[in-house]
Amino acid sequence: MKYKFLSIISAGIILFTSCQSKSQAENASVQDSTSQTTKNQAETEPAIDVSKIKVADAKTILARKQVPILCYHQVRNWKPTDGKVGKDYIVEIQNFKDQMKMLADSGYHTILPDQLYAYLNTGAKLPSKPIMLTFDDTDMDQFTVVRPTLDKYGYKAVYFIMTVSIGRKGKFVDYMTKEQIKQLSDEGNVIGSHTYDHKNFKKYAGKDWEEQLDKPTKKLEEITGKKMTEFAYPFGLWNAEGIPELKKRGFRMAYQLSTKRDEKDPLFTIRRIIASGYWSPKTLSNSIKNSF
Ligand SMILES: [Zn+2]
User: I need a surface site. Which of 8, 64, 273, 276 has the fewest CB within 10 A?
Assistant: First the structure.
């Protein structure tokens, strides 16, 4: 029985290596010399009291210019076993560093969900060239590679965690521990929910709401000591029927991929683009301009 349970878990972990692919990943043990912190992000906005914000009507929200949001998964070097599709979800380390440098050199400032929420609902001012960086699926390289790279530019990000993976070592990929997740949160990044085990949101019924939403929220709130308000749909897949379930549970915004936003609930269908492993910094720059 015990053996069977463990097998299911480890089989699961391998399947979940990324949002849309079963690409294989080994934690490329990365030696990233902790780069000195140069705070380019000088524009520190005053703290926003989001509890006072009234949700605007959908038309108002849809009329505002979208803030570009990038979605990343693994950040590591490609291996011969990586598939063609999988590489869309694996950005090589130097390429990732070059992409972040391009953003900084182009004058982009990262923003976090509180700022996006205030902007979309009230029109609150954002820093110049705002962008949001999001990282899905709990991969260890997000701590070992992404974190020090973002630190260099004073960038902050949103990490969407699937709770089944926390602290696990998979056959192909390792996952962040709860201590690392807490550290990211303590350092001013935002932790969001990405379900328990990446089950397709469109298929939730019965106990799924508890397993995929309530329990992960409780766990992530225990780890971070902060309220969970952000949710990323597994595979970016959503349906309008599920949105009330998110609202009921106190989520404020939910993130899909790049399909059209819902006309009634734009805050629960916020668009992101996957920054493909095949993209150069130049291609990324063009995609940001063309997609939002
Ligand atoms: Zn995912």
Answer: 8
